[in-house]
Write a structure and sequence with these properties.
Length: about 190
């Protein structure tokens, strides 16, 4: 009886409060390495709004996992502007990225850094762009209400909102707050 109760409680906590995730790609290097494991707080965004700088797990728009599909053909790849609208369907895949802009913000990209409302972000923690696709998107877009713009910390090797658009708030699963594997990387994010 006690074992069944403990298992049930553990499953409830994982389903509704804190869930573990494994980093699947190099898009968040150097902050998070491939195979590193993090805990995600699934309750926090019921209590407060997401903030710029939060590292979050979310469902991207459908098509993000297989390529770069923007919901607005006038923005995104080849237009000089980041994608300003996701496709309407939510993917079942989980992504992990950093929030760089929120609802109503004006955003452009300069050398891989977000320029939000005319101010270039100071990000000494990222792996810089090396002149690849998406490193410079000078035409500003406006982030729609209840949407958040996500970018990986490995700016030259991240498939992110630059290509498939901002993410609706209700597609955000939670904030990654703690890394527990490997042992030499244990700590708060």
């Amino acid at each position: 009886m006690i074992v069944a109760l403990a298992i049930g409680l553990a499953l409830l906590i994982q389903a509704f409060v804190v869930k573990p995730y494994q980093i699947p790609s190099e898009s968040m290097e150097p902050t998070l390495d491939v195979g590193q494991r993090v805990l995600v707080n699934r309750v926090i965004y019921h209590l407060r709004d997401p903030h710029i700088g939060d590292v979050v797990v979310f469902h991207p728009p459908q098509g993000a996992e297989s390529g770069t599909e923007c919901g607005d053909k006038n923005t995104g790849e080849g237009t000089g502007a980041a994608c300003d609208l996701p496709t309407s369907q939510e993917s079942g895949t989980n992504f992990i990225k950093r929030i760089v802009a929120g609802p109503g913000d004006r955003l452009s990209i300069k050398h891989g850094h977000p320029v939000v409302n005319g101010v270039e972000a100071n990000e000494d923690f990222i792996k810089p762009c090396q002149g690849g696709n998406g490193c410079n998107l000078p035409h500003a877009i406006t982030i729609p209400q209840d949407h958040y713009f996500m970018m990986g910390d490995n700016r030259g090797a991240s498939d992110d909102s630059r290509f498939w658009g901002p993410v609706p708030r209700n597609w955000i699963i939670g904030e990654a707050f703690f890394t527990y594997w490997p042992p030499d990387r244990i700590g708060l994010l």
